[in-house]
Structures are given as structure tokens and as C-alpha cells.
TrEMBL record:
UniProt name for this protein: FAD-binding oxidoreductase
Cofactor(s) recorded in Swiss-Prot or TrEMBL: FAD
Record organism: Trinickia violacea
Gene Ontology biological process: respiratory electron transport chain
FAD-binding PCMH-type domain sequence ranges: 40-220
Family matches, as PANTHER family: D-2-HYDROXYGLUTARATE DEHYDROGENASE, MITOCHONDRIAL (PTHR43716)
Gene Ontology molecular function: any one: oxidoreductase activity
Keywords: FAD, Flavoprotein, Oxidoreductase
Protein family: Belongs to the FAD-binding oxidoreductase/transferase type 4 family.
InterPro entries linked: FAD-bd_oxidored_4_C, FAD-bd_PCMH, FAD-bd_PCMH-like_sf, FAD-bd_PCMH_sub1, FAD-bd_PCMH_sub2, FAD-linked_Oxase-like_C, FAD-oxidored/transferase_4, Oxid_FAD_bind_N
Keyword Endoplasmic reticulum assigned: no
UniProt-listed Pfam families: FAD-oxidase_C (PF02913), FAD_binding_4 (PF01565)
Protein's UniProt keywords contain Plastid: no
Length: 462
């Protein structure tokens, strides 16, 4: 047995004694998993520990601290910034057995959950009580409450209900030394000292592992209006957004540039609108009074058509049509199939300047890589644009050059390198371009206090 195998046997045995055999995976059960949802990257770690509750998480961390054992935390492994990537000397702590929904309070409109529950499972449980958890993303079948808290995930309904940060009331976390910090606040208003949950939201698992959370729910909407529209220029897109914001029921404003729509439409038997326009937008409104909501939505569309803001529009009239329109916007499978290998970007830019930024980036990409192809889409009302870039087989080898083109253009547009996916491992070298030395220093000092030996998610963030 080699010394590294010996080490693996040791840590696996120690963990089995502590959290039981079902809580520990080794060998093929570890390596068969991927760290990345968009391409297959086997998990090289030594062991996966799957604690069943907070106390077991704390015990695992106490053992790891004693042994100076580095740890990477796994939720649903849907993160696209490399936060779940690890080294062969790491062990994984996965929250996959912590899927309990402990309480749903219909009066307070809160849910208390374990962090490994998926967003889809939480939404299903809330729906049974007439409630809705509004963090809604294409990966919701696998993405977990803990992972979405760690990344401060956004998604499709941010324009109405905000990001994860706005939807978490309290949480419990285990610090790298095994200390449990329970801050399971259920109150909307609570100014009793530091609001510690914000330390962990968006900190990408660098300050502690989120084990439980209290999240806000909203009444389950009873009406859903969805339209798919074509628009002829960017000024009209922004004008349409301004008008859509006057709808009190607006819940999504998803813009697709022609490079995105042309690709997706070529894989749909009956595209809702013919390709050929520069912009396509999915507008959605969720409300509580079907007749009034639908009338308002139709009036909004008619006014936009009459004033020439919209070139063409399709209004969904059945659940099936609404789902079909959303499926076009969620076309990640087509993108993965048709663009791979590709790099995916998640930038934030002031809304009036988005199209100018994209024009500059595309020109720079084509200047350097004439074969470059892009797909561009995003949650425009949240300043958030996703760009997929491929230059063919050389994409990953030239990744750093492509990243520099996309990121170097951002400062002059007041942009940010990540709107919702986080820094992870992939964007780490660009973080210092975005943060002042004082901000970088404070982030590192916070981390030093909680994890002086850098045992937790050591290759992530700062
Ligand atoms: C098809 C698709 C669509 C997507 N759409 C969106 C979108 O609209 N908006 C959006 O924001 N993101 C989106 N994502 C990205 C991804 O789903 C989110 O980042 C999500 O929050 C990750 O959750 P997860 O449970 O999969 O976490 P993982 O991928 O497992 O982990 C992500 C990071 O969080 C850390 N982490 C995980 N769990 C915990 C925990 N309990 N405590 C502490 N740290 C933890 C990990 O160490 C890692 O650094 C999408 C991804 C895909 C594949």
C-alpha cells in the first residue's frame, strides 16, 4: 500500500468510526462523480464524507482540523465557477444526506431546512402549503439550499424577489474548527447585533459550511403570463424593460441576443418566432388575480406593439406553451451539445451600456480568433448577462486569453466579472482587478480568523 493509499485508508476509517459506513464513500464511488455540471471532470478526492446532521458535520471538521486535512464542500455540484473542484489530497464533505425539510410555517411564510435539500424539493414542499420559494434556476433539480446560499445564487426571478441573500432569514454554519454557529433567525426584523448570516451568504464555502437555513417564502402565484417577443434594437429593449417594470406582477425579463436564439431555434421543431431579429425577450408576470393580471399583461403587450417597441410577439395560452417558451430560454443542453468546448461568462454591466460592451467584446474576440462563436443571453433587468464563447477545439487552451478579452473590457463599462456564479477557482486571478487592496486584505483577514490553516475550500475565492 502506498503512503497516499495508507492516508486514504486512515481518514476513511476514522470517518467511518465517527459517522458510520453509509456516511463514507471511497474509490470508484468518489471518482465516478463530476466536479463540473457542464463537462465531465472526475472528482479526484480521497474520500467523500456524507454527514447526516450538523453534529456529524462538526465532528468531521474537528477530525480534519486535528489532522490538518483539507476539505472541499459539495452541494449539488451545479456551480459553474469551479468551486466544487478539488485536489487528490482533499476530502469532500457532501451535504447530500442532509435533505430534511423541518418546518414550513404558513403564517410566517418561512421554511426551515437542512442545507442539502434541493431547490426543487423545497419548492415542491412549499407548493403543498400554497407557498413558493422564489429562488428559481435552471439547475434547481440538483442545486441545494446550502450551495445557493454559499454562492448567493440569483436565477430567473431576481427582478421580483431578489437574490438568495434577500431570501434567507437565518442559518446555521459549522466553522472549519468544528464550532457550530446557529443563527436560525425567523424574524423579518431583527437588529440584535451583527447579522452573521451575511458572513456566509456568498462566501463560497470559505468561512464555514452551511448546514441549515431559514428561508422566506411567498404566496404561490395563481396566475402566470408568459410572452416571447422580438425587438429590433437595444434602445427598444431597454424601453420595453422600463415599461415592463411598471407591471407590479413582473417576474422575469430574459433577453436573448440573436446569436443565442438562432442556435436554439435551429433545434426547435416550431420556433415561436422566426429568427432574424437582433433581440428576443421572454417576459413573465406572476400574480394572484388571473383576470386582472392577464388583462394588465395583454394591455402591456398591445401598447408595446402599437408603439413599435415590439416587432413580433407570441403570448402563451396554456401551461404547455409557457413551459415551451421557458425551455427555449433554458437552452443549456443545446449550448453544451453545440458549443462544447466553450467558456461561460456571467458578467454584470450597467443596463444602458450592455450592448456596447458586448459589441466591443465580440469585435475583440473576432479580431483575435476569427472563428469565435458566441451565445449571449441573460437576466437584463438584473444587469446580468451570460456569454458562451467557443473558438473550437482550442477553446480551453486559449481560455486565459479569451477571459482577458471578456474581463479587460469591463472596467470602462462599470462592470463586474461575476453577477451570480461567484469567483470559485476559475475567476480567482481576476478578483484583484475588481476589488481594492483594502477589500482584498479585509477578505483575507476574515478568512484568517475563521480558517487560519486554509483547510476549507482552499483554492476558492481570495
Ligand atoms: C443549467 C444551469 C443553470 C444555472 N442557472 C443559474 C442561475 O440562473 N443563477 C445562478 O446563480 N446560478 C445558476 N447556476 C449555477 C449553480 O446552479 C449555482 O451556483 C448553485 O447555487 C450551486 O449550488 P450547488 O448546490 O450545486 O453547489 P455546488 O456546485 O456543489 O457548490 C458551489 C460552491 O458552494 C460551496 N458549497 C456548496 N454547498 C455548501 C454549503 N452547504 N456550505 C458552504 N459552502 C457550500 C461549494 O464548496 C462551492 O464552492 C446554473 C447552473 C447550471 C448547470
Amino acid at each position: 500500500m502506498t503512503s497516499s493509499n495508507q492516508g486514504e485508508a486512515d481518514i476513511a476509517d476514522v470517518l467511518r468510526k465517527s459517522i458510520g459506513s453509509p456516511g463514507v464513500l471511497t474509490d470508484g464511488d468518489v471518482h465516478a462523480r463530476s466536479c463540473d455540471p457542464l463537462r465531465s471532470v472526475p472528482v479526484p478526492a480521497r474520500v467523500i464524507a456524507r454527514p447526516a446532521n450538523t453534529e456529524e458535520v462538526a465532528e468531521v471538521f474537528r477530525l480534519c482540523t486535528q489532522r490538518n486535512q483539507t476539505v472541499v464542500v459539495h452541494g449539488g455540484r451545479t456551480g459553474v465557477s469551479g468551486g466544487a473542484y478539488c485536489r487528490d489530497t482533499d476530502i469532500i464533505v457532501s451535504l447530500e444526506r442532509m435533505t430534511g425539510i423541518e418546518d414550513i410555517c404558513t403564517v410566517g411564510q418561512t421554511a426551515v431546512v437542512q442545507a442539502g435539500v434541493t431547490i426543487e424539493a423545497l419548492q415542491a414542499a412549499a407548493r403543498e402549503k400554497g407557498l413558493f420559494y422564489p429562488i428559481d434556476l435552471g439547475s434547481k433539480g440538483s442545486a441545494t439550499v446550502g450551495g445557493t446560499i454559499a454562492t448567493n445564487a440569483g436565477g430567473n426571478r431576481v427582478i421580483r424577489w431578489g437574490m438568495t441573500r434577500q431570501n434567507v432569514l437565518g442559518l446555521e454554519a459549522v466553522l472549519p474548527d468544528g464550532t457550530v454557529v446557529s443563527s436560525m433567525n425567523r424574524l423579518l426584523k431583527n437588529n440584535t447585533g451583527y447579522d452573521l448570516k451575511h458572513l456566509f451568504i456568498g462566501s463560497e464555502g470559505t468561512l464555514g459550511v452551511v448546514t441549515r437555513a431559514v428561508v422566506k417564502l411567498v404566496p404561490m402565484p395563481t396566475s402566470q403570463s408568459v410572452a416571447f417577443v422580438a425587438v429590433s434594437n437595444y434602445e427598444r429593449v431597454t424601453e420595453l424593460l422600463a415599461r415592463a417594470r411598471q407591471l407590479p406582477t413582473l417576474s422575469a425579463f430574459e433577453v436573448m441576443w440573436s446569436d443565442f436564439y438562432t442556435l436554439i431555434a435551429s433545434h426547435v421543431s416550431e420556433p415561436p418566432i422566426a429568427p432574424g431579429q437582433p433581440f428576443y425577450i421572454l417576459v413573465e408576470a406572476l400574480g394572484y388575480n388571473k383576470d386582472i393580471d392577464e388583462a394588465m399583461f395583454v394591455a402591456f403587450l398591445e401598447a408595446a406593439l402599437e408603439s413599435g417597441l415590439i416587432v413580433d410577439a407570441v403570448l402563451a395560452t396554456s401551461d404547455r406553451q409557457r413551459e415551451d417558451l421557458w425551455r427555449i430560454r433554458e437552452g443549456s443542453e443545446v449550448i453544451v451539445r453545440e458549443m462544447s468546448p466553450f467558456l461561460s461568462f456571467d458578467v454584470s454591466i450597467e443596463i444602458p451600456r450592455v450592448d456596447a460592451y458586448l459589441a466591443e467584446v465580440r469585435a475583440s474576440l473576432l479580431g483575435r480568433f476569427p472563428q469565435a462563436r458566441t451565445v449571449t443571453f441573460g437576466h437584463l433587468g438584473d444587469n446580468n448577462i451570460h456569454i458562451g464563447v467557443t473558438i473550437g477545439r482550442e477553446t480551453l487552451a486559449c481560455g486565459n486569453e479569451i477571459e482577458k478579452i471578456v474581463y479587460d473590457a469591463l472596467p470602462s463599462y462599470g462592470g463586474a466579472i461575476t453577477a451570480e456564479h461567484g469567483i470559485g477557482q476559475f475567476k480567482r486571478e481576476f478578483l484583484a482587478q475588481q476589488k481594492s487592496p483594502a477589500e482584498m486584505d479585509l477578505m483575507r483577514r476574515l478568512r484568517d480568523v475563521l480558517d487560519p490553516s486554509r483547510l476549507l475550500n482552499r483554492d476558492v475565492l481570495c
